[in-house]
Amino acid sequence: MVRSDIRGLTEAELILACQEIGVPKFRGRQLFHWIQQKAVQNWDEIKNIGKADLIKIQERLILVPLLQLKEQVSQDETRKFLFELADGQSIECVLMDYDRVKSRNRRTVCVSTQVGCPVGCAFCATGLGGWQRNLSSGEIVGQILDITHAMRQEDPDFQVTNVVFMGMGEPLLNYDEVLKGIQILNQEAGQNIGMRRMTISTSGVAPKIRQLAQDNPQVGLAVSLHSANNEIRNDLIPINRRYPLEELMKACQEYTERTNRRITFEVALIAGQATHKAAEEVAQLLQGQLAHVNLIPVNPVVETGMARPDGAEIQGFARVLEQRGIPVSLREEKGTDIDAACGQLRRQWESDEK
Ligand code: SF4
């Protein structure tokens, strides 16, 4: 029998698995707490479950933490982790701990949802390597658990408060596993992370935005817009050829109508491209849409040759949106002294290993 990954099971599934192997129901609840709340990494750490029951459980389920290959810590407390999966593939995730430093008590983890990515955005190091496979819900949840475990060595009270599905991969192309991961992370006996504290970021997979509107799991939605011009967006985000702006915006309208939730539109600012005209196009596209724009000056990636615009370009872009009544914020620069752009650490590791 193929053993399931215990970290990819909801509390109800774990209880059911216990019942099926003749282990009392309450053991399932205890196990879920040990795995998901205490983030234990091996069976020996589980203290209140008898040996006989644990042996039966191990015959049915596996507990395999991700192997930490590398960790980089930036001056602003952004920590980037490179993890190896059971099949030898590697993924990145990032802990943004700077809010703790500012006493805002917010610890956000940016998780990966795929190994590599099929979308191939022009500014992204992950897309350069292509797509390998989807992550399972256990591997998605595992990133939060293993970061929690590592951080609790320094701070026993460490708790992740927010999750963004913005790391390697397109989350909506791995829809079922991502939604199951969200369900597990939300469970009260586990990480208990509020639905509204989790955000899915998509490059614009219109049919899945519609599905998300129907399922309405109450999570946040961010759309990587980057340009309001189809020709430019085709080059930046190739999935735009399949779901051009007209179709994307229709799906976004439907999403806000059904959920009454505001969408965050991410706009990467690239030196030389963050022009007044580009800002006007974004403002026009978003007129009438319940929206918020997040401006992100790009992290430089050597392979793509893209650079961060200067302060005047960034401020000018923001001003145009504000004047048109669109709420706008500028993402704080994080981890610029480490390989913080998505996929950079993994590529660096792979080239060092060759
Ligand atoms: S930015 Fe996101 S969607 Fe685009 S290639 Fe990178 S990981 Fe994929």
UniProtKB/TrEMBL annotation:
It comes from the Bacteria. Binds 1 [4Fe-4S] cluster. The cluster is coordinated with 3 cysteines and an exchangeable S-adenosyl-L-methionine. GO terms for molecular function: 4 iron, 4 sulfur cluster binding; metal ion binding; rRNA (adenine(2503)-C2-)-methyltransferase activity; rRNA binding; tRNA (adenine(37)-C2)-methyltransferase activity; tRNA binding. The active site is at residues 92, 342. [4Fe-4S] cluster binds at residues 117, 121, 124. GO terms for cellular component: cytoplasm. It catalyses: adenosine(37) in tRNA + 2 reduced [2Fe-2S]-[ferredoxin] + 2 S-adenosyl-L-methionine = 2-methyladenosine(37) in tRNA + 5'-deoxyadenosine + L-methionine + 2 oxidized [2Fe-2S]-[ferredoxin] + S-adenosyl-L-homocysteine; adenosine(2503) in 23S rRNA + 2 reduced [2Fe-2S]-[ferredoxin] + 2 S-adenosyl-L-methionine = 2-methyladenosine(2503) in 23S rRNA + 5'-deoxyadenosine + L-methionine + 2 oxidized [2Fe-2S]-[ferredoxin] + S-adenosyl-L-homocysteine. It is an enzyme of class 2 (transferase). SUPFAM superfamilies: Radical SAM enzymes. Its cofactor is [4Fe-4S] cluster. Belongs to the radical SAM superfamily. RlmN family. Reaction proceeds by a ping-pong mechanism involving intermediate methylation of a conserved cysteine residue. NCBIfam families: rRNA_mod_RlmN. Specifically methylates position 2 of adenine 2503 in 23S rRNA and position 2 of adenine 37 in tRNAs. This is Probable dual-specificity RNA methyltransferase RlmN. The lineage of its organism: Bacteria, Bacillati, Bacillota, Clostridia, Eubacteriales.
